[in-house]
Design a protein that fits this description.
The longest helix is centred in the first third of the chain and has 28 residues, at about 20-45. The protein is mostly helical and about 140 residues long. The chain has 8 helices and no strands. The mean pLDDT is about 80.
């Protein structure tokens, strides 16, 4: 065995990036993904006065809409976290990001308390699994 046989090799991926560069790109994208996830939970509370005034909600109604976010949050986190062992994380992350956008659309277009609660429940179900899926160990399997 020579030193050349034991030296780690960096292979070029289809995009032309070395595997080390690709890993850093994925890491950066996951950091941004988690920042958006965290910011979304925070912004709703920060915009509470404006949302309540715009939708003419009482403090109780706004609290109900805010807590609706967590109705399926932990259930979805556990279920999709387990699913991430069988499904490629990139597809789960893409699905969650699309669901975030879909869930926010009805609230942006207007509607009442029921629309706000429904969109918050869907958003919570889509955001709950973000951390377990982002932390999924990819175990070096090809194509993951």
């Amino acid at each position: 065995m020579t030193a050349a046989d034991t030296a780690p090799r960096q292979t070029e991926s289809l995009t032309g990036h070395s595997s080390g560069a690709r890993a850093w790109i994925v890491t950066g994208l996951l950091v941004v993904f988690m920042m958006v996830n965290f910011a979304d939970k925070s912004v709703f509370g920060l915009a509470a006065d404006e949302i309540r005034a715009d939708m003419r909600l009482s403090a109780t109604e706004f609290g109900l809409a805010n807590s609706a976010f967590f109705l399926l949050f932990s259930v979805a986190a556990a279920a999709v976290g387990l699913l991430s062992d069988r499904v490629r994380p990139k597809w789960l992350l893409l699905t969650m990001a699309v669901l975030w956008s879909v869930a926010q659309t009805p609230a942006a277009l207007g509607g009442g308390l029921a629309v706000l609660i429904g969109s918050r429940v869907l958003l919570g179900a889509a955001e709950g699994p973000a951390f377990p899926v982002a932390q999924q160990q990819w175990r070096g399997r090809p194509g993951r």
